[in-house]
Amino acid sequence: MLSIFGLRIDLDWFYNHADREIIQRWTVDGADTTRQHELVIKTPEPPAAEWCFLALGDTGDSDRFGSRISPQSAVATFMAQDCGLLAEAPTGEPLLGAPPVQPTAQMLIHTGDINYLTGEQRLYDLNFVDPYRPFLTEQSHYNNLIFRIPFLPVPGNHDYYDLHGWVAGLMKLGSWLGFSKLLTHFFYRIGLSVPLGGSDMGASYMTAFVESAPDRPQPLPYQPGVRTRLPNRYYQFRRGNVHCFALDSNTLDAPPPGTADPFKEKAHAIVERTERKLGHLNEQVKRDREWEQEETARQREAMRAGQHADLWPHLQSHLHAVATSAAALSAATNRWADKLATATPETSLPETNSVETALPQTALPQMDSAQAAQHLKALAQQNQDLHDQWSEILKTIEAAPEPVPAYEAQLDSLADLQEAWLHHLAQRDQFTVTLPGAPEYEAARQARLALDASLGQWCRQRVGSSLSGPCALAISEEEEEQEETDLSEAILDTQRDLAMARKLSQRSDEDYDAAQIEWLKSGLAAVKAEEAEQQRHDPSARIWRIVYLHHPIYTTLPSHAEHGDSIGVRHNLEAILKDADLVISGHSHGFEWLRSQAAPHQCYLVAGAGGQGRLQGSIFSPLLAGRYGAAKESLVQAGLTSLVWASGDPVMSGATVEHKLFSYLRIRVLPDELRVEPVGVRQLEAPAPDTPPHATSSDDALTPEAYDWERVYPMPVHEVADLPSGQHEGSISTPERRLHAIRIRRGQPPEAVWAE
């Protein structure tokens, strides 16, 4: 049996739904007419002749950073400044190379992966509502997001994930065989929230963003500050002289019926290969586990013998931090409940949606403010009961003549309390995500983050901060794509690959999303014809055609380079996208500008560095010379001629935090061109070496103010050129070179504007 702390890694953790299931469930009305996929943005003033908007993707993991500023929040704050929604930077410090503040950005498009890891409803507060609070009205909440300016997303693959049945079932059972404790330890080690459920095939995303009322108007009006819902899972809209097509690329990788499906043919081999990789990972896990068991046994024996007196001050500090945070949470929750109780009794709160998650018992019926206050009071009491049990154990330990052996004797009881607390917090999140925002809510949210962080710090103190050893050895020459990366990350990546391979092995003709593809093709043609008609009267008339989606047409980042989903999307869309002026995607965690001889006038951009913590560099980096040969050759044969990329230093899976370069795009709309300005965002001061990357506490060194962020523009990038020459290892010129902008003019290849 392959296991990690008792958790089997040879079984599927994640479940990828078949495209046909998503198409049938989430294409509103099951229709493909234009009006049912059309959005009309209603604002007081139309855009001027020159205006701008922002783009980014792959963002939703702020929960892992606790109460300090996450990369996602830092990027969001700088974007809010660009949109005129904030006056101050996150740190109040001067901004390095900040772009001009005029013109103010007037909308934002998001290329998906809104909420990691599995799109859970309960995490929308932490991973979307809070980071993007400047873009939302004060009373916005998960069930009723009202944006101040147009904020227009598409779903990513993580927004559709679910936990496989066996994982979700065990999580529902809680402490069955200690499973959830073991899973908690694993995810705490890698800085992720424990997934207690999934998205219900994207239901969490659809509830947050898509209008499902059967009597909705067509086309659907989108009025910032009033009602900001999307008409469908894919849609189109016009803003000034820019026409955007927002695609759901999760269902765009299957080939047309009756054509060869090479990935389905290879899927069983890929499954076997991925399972062998899991076996390889398991050998490393077993070695790590054996070492940990031996080390833990030595530590516990030493604690029993009173030989670790120097350990007690650290343990005592963590134990008290948990108690202090829990007391603060109870107090903040009671204040919030008192505030709700004073509201008009008959005021109805939004109905919690019926998404079936690992915590179905928290799906509550519609209630008024008084009932919500009572439920908050009950949550506060549950938390207080756990606090009292924890504090009683702590008093017992501190009263003992030898506190360290006494601590060791109570360790299992403390671990049981930690597990109970995490399930309590998950149930709490499932309820509070549906409540309107308020100052009292914000105080309670901060207290909840502090408690989770304190529990995490104590957990890491007793089980270790990360799995030891990099996953560096390839299984065979044919399987060279295995990264030199953290072992725990490699396990998650491989589980994701296994879910995709199993999906491909079950693919059928019904998975081909003919309606969406035809809708895009005819829509681009219609806009092109409309522009031609305008030019009969005004030769300078332009309607810029922009397509954005999650999966990239091309990417060179290791996790997704030449994987089946991206290749499938390319095969289905590349010819159609020749009628677009700009294509923006995410999925790969970095910035890329890619050129292809198959579409020499096309500008393909990847904007996947919007805040998700794990960034990647290109497989054409010199550090990966001699590896990923098959992916490099495939990209070149597909037509890739050159690229520009950035995510920090040219590393495989992201360097230390001070090297990471997050980014977003600022797109200027000019009379005769589009000008894309990549804007970098990076952390100025890294945490202390012994500080876990997502730790928080009441210590001054760990407050948000200790982590300064800056905006970097023009943005430093790496350039790889002349790929068809056969130099597939790539060549990077002037790593310090800064990209000011990319100029896009109709009928001409995109052009770089370099900063001197």
Outline of the structure:
The protein has 756 residues and is of the alpha/beta class.
List the helices and strands and how they pair.
Blueprint: E1 3-4, E2 7-8, E3 14-15, H1 19-26, E4 38-41, E5 51-56, H2 71-82, E6 108-110, H3 124-129, E7 151-153, E8 162-163, H4 165-173, H5 179-189, H6 203-209, E9 220-222, E10 235-239, E11 242-246, H7 262-304, H8 312-341, H9 369-399, H10 403-432, H11 439-463, E12 470-471, E13 485-486, H12 487-505, H13 514-537, E14 544-548, H14 564-573, E15 582-585, E16 591-596, E17 599-607, H15 629-638, E18 640-646, E19 662-669, E20 674-683, E21 709-712, E22 715-716, E23 718-720, E24 732-733, E25 738-744, E26 751-754
Parallel strand pairs: 4-9, 4-10, 5-6, 6-7, 11-14, 14-15, 15-17
Antiparallel strand pairs: 1-2, 3-8, 5-19, 10-11, 12-13, 16-17, 16-18, 18-23, 19-20, 20-21, 20-25, 22-25, 23-24, 25-26
Helix pairs in contact: 7-10, 7-12, 8-9, 8-11, 9-10, 10-11
Structural category: alpha/beta
How many strands?
26
Level-2 CATH architecture of the domain at 51-113 and 221-261 and 516-685 and 706-754 = 2-Layer Sandwich
Strand count, sense and barrel status of the largest sheet are:
11 strands, mixed
Task: Kindly report the spatial arrangement of strands forming the biggest sheet.
Answer: 9-4-10-11-14-15-17-16-18-23-24
